[in-house]
Amino acid sequence: MLEWLRIFWLPSKPVKKLKELPQNAGVYYITALWIVLYVGKAKNLRSRWKPSHHRYQQFKLLHPFGRLHYKVLSINQLDSYEKSEILRLRPRWNGTARVTFWDLLRLFLVVWGRVIIYVLLLLLAIAALIYLLLQS
Fold first, then answer.
1. Is the entire prediction scored with pTM above 0.70?
2. I want to staple 12 with a disulfide (CB 3.0 to 4.6 A). Which of 6, 67, 94, 99 is the partner?
3. How many distinct structural domains can be found in the chain?
């Protein structure tokens, strides 16, 4: 049920460190705050993620929340593994030539909505802890 979480334990890089990607073949995942947005494959992960990549500018917009998670595979496994991951995860950006303004606006609202929820939960936990400490 929560198998999709294993993606977030894979090695990852933020947009500013894509030059540090390995030069191996692999499948990559564009994520932002626990949301998988895109799944792709590359015979060379580092050379695939240059500023000329068709998703690079969109990925740049996700900074500081966006990460590129990757799994190194053999070239023979790339096609089947990528297809199975797309079917399993159904990322929003796969199957679209371009991400529209409305897609980016929705993503912006989802990401910042999650940030606000996480901050509110953290503040609630701190308030509860202070309350418990003052009661003793």
1. yes
2. 67
3. 1
